[in-house]
Each structure stands twice: as C-alpha cells, then as structure tokens.
Amino acid sequence: METPAQKVTAKRPRVLIIGGGFAGLNAAKELSSLPVDVTLIDRKNHHTFQPLLYQVATATLSPGNIAQPIRRILSHCANVKVLMDELTAVDLSAKKAQFKNLGAVDFDYFILATGARHSYFGNDQWEKFAPGLKTIEDAVEIRSRILSAFEVAETEMAKTGTHKPLNFVIIGGGPTGVEMAGAISDICRMSMRGDYRLIDPAKARIILIEGLPRILGPYPEDLAASAVLQLQELGVEVMLSARVTDVQSDAVVTDKGVVPASVIMWAAGVQASSAGKMLNVECDRRGCVLVDDFLNPPGQPDVFVCGDVAHFEQDGKPVPGVAPCAMQMGEQAARAIACDLAGKARTKFRYDDKGDMATIGRRRAVANLKWPVKTHMSGFLAWLSWLLIHILSLIGLRNRLAVFFAWIWTYLRSESGVRLITDDVAEHPTPLAVTKDGPHLETKV
Length: 445
Prior knowledge:
Elements: H1 4-7, E1 14-18, H2 22-31, E2 37-42, E3 46-48, H3 53-57, H4 63-66, E4 67-69, H5 70-73, E5 80-84, E6 87-91, E7 96-99, E8 103-106, E9 109-112, E10 116-118, H6 136-160, E11 167-171, H7 175-191, E12 205-209, H8 221-233, E13 236-239, E14 244-247, E15 251-254, E16 257-260, E17 263-266, E18 270-272, E19 289-290, E20 303-305, E21 310-311, E22 313-314, E23 317-318, H9 323-342, E24 355-359, E25 365-369, E26 375-378, H10 380-393, H11 397-413, E27 432-435, E28 438-441
Parallel strand pairs: 1-2, 1-9, 2-5, 9-20, 11-12, 11-17, 12-13, 19-21
Antiparallel strand pairs: 3-4, 6-7, 7-8, 10-18, 14-15, 15-16, 22-23, 24-25, 25-26, 27-28
Helix pairs in contact: 2-9
C-alpha cells in the first residue's frame, strides 16, 4: 500500500483547508514553509477572535477590534491562496470538494476546521428569541437587543410614566454565559450610569440559568463556587438545576417557574458545523467527526479534522472546544504533512492544556492554570492574568493596541465606547406590552 508521501512525490501536494478559524489559520501558517500549494476557503473573509465576542455584544469593543481579514493575516504566506466560498459536498475517494461558486476543487490533503454552531437541543424555534454568540453578526445582534431594551424602557417611561421590568436572561452557565452575565451587570451599573433621565439601568435584573447543579462545569469546584459569589456581588441572580422547557419572546420557562425577560441570550450548547457529516465518516451525537491519534478519520490518512468539529479523546475524555486546542490541532495537521514529505513517521497528537480562564466583569475572574505551575486564582489577580493572555493572543498589532486602549478607557472612565444600535428597534421582539394600566407580561404559559 502506498504511503501518503509516495503518492505526492510526483508533484507539489495540494492542501485544501476549509475554515479560517484558529485551526485553519494555524495550519496554513505552518504549511507556508513547506513545498505545498495551499488553498484556504471560508464562507467569510475575516477571522474572528471568538473569546472576545461577548465584549462586542456588550458594547465594550467594536467588531473591528477582534476581527481581521484572512487575506491580511496570511499575506506573507506566498504559497497560500485564500478564497471566499461555501463547501457543499466532499468526495474523499475522488479527492474532490464541491463548492457553491467554485465548483469542484481537487486536493491531495484535506483539512476540515469549520468550527461549531449553536445547539438548541432540537428546539431550533427558540433561536429567534434567544440568539447565541458565535459570530460577529451574532454579537452585533445581541448588542442591539440589549441597548434597544433600555431605549424602549426610556420611551415607555416618557409616554406612560412606567416601563416594563428590565430583565436580561442568559441561558447556560459555561464560560460564555458567565462572562456575558458579568459584562451586562457592568454596563447596567457603571457604563450607563447617568445617561438616562427617566429610568435607572442599575435596577435591571440579570439572571443566569444553568441546568446543572453548578456553573462552569469543566472547572474545579472551588473556582465554580468563587464564580457564583463574584456574580452575586455584581447583582447577578444565579439559578442552578433549572431545566429550560420553553423560550418565548418575553419569557423563559423552566421546571422551576417562568422567568420574565426583556432580552434572552443562549449560551447552553453547541454542535459541530454540518460540514463534518459531508465526509460520510463516523460522527458523535453533536456531529463531531471521530478522529484517531493523528487527527484522521479512520482509514483516511490524507484527511485531518481539527478544532470544534473534531471529536478527539485524550486520557479517556474529549479535549475541550477552546481556541488553544484548535490552534494546536491545526499545527499538528501541518506537521503530519511535513513528516509525509520528509518520509518520516507521523507523531501522535497530544493537547498541551495550559489551563482555563473566565472573566466575570470588571476586576473579577477565575483561572485554572496548569502552566507554568498548577494553581487556582480568583478575583483581581485572575482578571489581570486574563487581560494579559487575551491581549497577547489577539492576531495583529493593530488589534492588540486597539483592544488594550479600549480596555484602559473603559477601566478609567467606566463607560463603554461602542453603544450603537445598528437595526430597527421594532425588529426585535417586544417582551412587555404597555397599556394605560401599566406593563403586563404576555406569555402563552
């Protein structure tokens, strides 16, 4: 049987990368020094630094602070071609990928790194009322909903002398949900202080709903408990062991009761992008492709699956769907191709986990560090560590400086700098109707 190296010695190998996220970009960068022709294709023309999307959603950063054109990022990689298109089918036996506009594209190596999307656990109708946070578009939509809620309340107060309760409900107590809850509390109690004449944003309720007995499930118990205390200090109400049974325009229904809501955000689950199923190989229940120790689907040594779309187990459990893991997977795929070209044996992938961090508003965070020493941190020191690591992780000097100065301004002035509503308030669901008798909840429960 021919080895991958023997099959590509006659010509420069063609490497096709699908996805310009952390995994795809790092694979392309590693491949830029090899005698291969690389084509990277993504549905969008930009890479998004997803860990800071919540700060766009809560008006601290602008989209341009955390996004950069893929072409610019890879401009120094002479053997990398970047195209914008959408994958529609893959034939692994024929080594062809089909795209919406390009048509068929041949490849010798295929790297799938298309990430993940929201999962509503079979209740996709909830997405209209509870958007998730995976893209720049999601963040801008949520930002508009949050800011519109205050504007509607101010208008209602001017018109009727009363307004609906301002309730912000976040479903899901993972890192994204915790960070969103803390950031919304900050803008309600600090950033908007004194901006409104008729309403008091500080009286808004922020409710974090988690179906499990504790938030931040993958974190150690002491850090999860610390996160709850820090959230409560910010005025966030944490509902644990509360299973969501319905999401409506104006309320979240749980097995513990109905929670009225002005704005609802979804942070409870993700599933792999649909591209994984196009390979016609074995996937798990979330649509993630099952891969071996070399990040290949069984029997497909020329195919690599990286990032959130891959199901890779280490020490008996799946590796987390976080940016550092995706970056290392992308680099591993490129190294495997380099080994093939050099006629060397591939090395097995092993995720080097340096820890997890989650910020909880201004001067608050939790950190489970595993490098350079194992330690748990909470509060101000963890927050400073989070700031430093995320500044250094951003792609591009311009973005690093922009985010750094935006954070300095926000910290010194206690105000958000990008409070823009970019669509019509009327487009959003109106949670509470106001009549001459005051506001009332409109639910179907």
